Amino acid sequence: MKRHEPDGRHAKVLAAALRTWTTVDHDPEPPVARLEIRYPPAWAFASTTSLTARQQTRLLAFLRDDLAENRPGHSTPDRAAAVINGLLAEAAAAGRTRITTADLAEAAPRIGRSRTWIAAHITDLIDAGTLQETRRPNTFRIT
After folding, report:
1. Confidence (pLDDT) at 1
2. Which among 58, 61, 49 has a CA at the least distance from the CA of 23?
3. pTM of the predicted model over 0.85
4. Are residues 102 and 136 in the same domain?
5. Range of the domain at 15
6. Which residues of the chain are under the pLDDT cut of 70?
7. Cβ count within 10 A of residue 3
8. 110, 40, 30: which is closest to 75 by C-alpha?
9. Of 69, 89, 108, which residue is a domain's last?
10. In a domain, 2, yes or no
11. Full DSSP string of 65-81
């Protein structure tokens, strides 16, 4: 299965979410920024969303908070486990039935834990029945 969806589904979902947010959070002030969403591999255009100064400030504050919250060393084991569970739920919701160690290890910066911790947590997930080993090395079935 490909890592990036060539049809831009993820970018289009993000674009729709931002468009909805700016519509619901209506601000009569004129736009000060324009956010253009594109998707790989050719970086095709998906959408443009205009932001007012207040919306831009709110969006940047959210992103700063999220980055600060997810910086390495800030994450607790419980929080890291919750992020991994979220990744597994996202994969299952996307119709994926398998996940690899590499898929989870790529998220190490987001999780705020080392690859060694992730490997140990994968063992815990296998023991708990959340993941099941397959015949392919480092590939697990999501149960």
Report:
1. 40
2. 49
3. no
4. yes
5. 9-69
6. 1-6, 66-74
7. 8
8. 110
9. 69
10. no
11. HHHHHTSTTT--HHHHH
